[in-house]
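Dear H.,

Thanks for agreeing to be a second pair of eyes. The structure we're designing against is below in token form, covering all 153 positions.
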């Protein structure tokens, strides 16, 4: 599984060298070279470690502007500060994610399969129609996941 790239506003000290400029309120997106400087009025977002995504969420709302570039290098999602995300936990003896990053899911769509200790298979369904922007594996004795979904309006 390939991992998307995450760009966050204002993270100059933790960045990995790659930068993105957002101009005209998200209508123009420019990827900069590592040594290229930007002199304009747009927002500069810096690449950070993808697993740190949940550090920029407080009470289901983003605390900074975020841009996610998915592994196909063509699909991107720009989320503004204050965007509300739905957090859906998937907990069980064994958890097998069904959807991947960037997938559009419909209401009632299966996100993950759960296997109980008895061997029964259960499913975690999404309560809304939206896009899966982030999946996090929670470190524990058993693999648990949290899916972050951007609801469609």
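And this is the sequence the design step returned. I haven't edited it by hand at all.
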């Amino acid at each position: 599984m390939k991992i998307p790239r995450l760009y966050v506003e204002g993270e100059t000290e933790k960045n990995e060298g790659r930068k993105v400029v957002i101009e005209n309120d998200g209508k123009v997106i420019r990827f900069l070279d590592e040594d290229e400087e930007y002199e304009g009025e747009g927002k500069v977002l810096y690449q950070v470690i993808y697993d740190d995504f949940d550090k920029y969420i407080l009470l289901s709302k983003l605390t900074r502007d975020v841009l996610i570039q998915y592994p196909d290098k063509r699909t991107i999602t720009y989320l503004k500060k204050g965007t509300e995300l739905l957090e859906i936990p998937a907990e069980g003896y064994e958890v097998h994610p069904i959807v991947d990053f960037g997938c559009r899911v419909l209401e009632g769509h299966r996100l993950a399969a759960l296997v109980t200790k008895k061997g029964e298979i259960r499913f975690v369904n999404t309560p809304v129609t939206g896009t899966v922007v982030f999946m996090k594996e929670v470190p524990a004795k058993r693999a648990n996941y949290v899916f972050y979904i951007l609801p469609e309006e």
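Two observations from my side: The chain has a mean pLDDT of 84. Residues 86-151 form a domain with the OB fold (Dihydrolipoamide Acetyltransferase, E2P) fold (CATH 2.40.50.100).

Warmly,
E.
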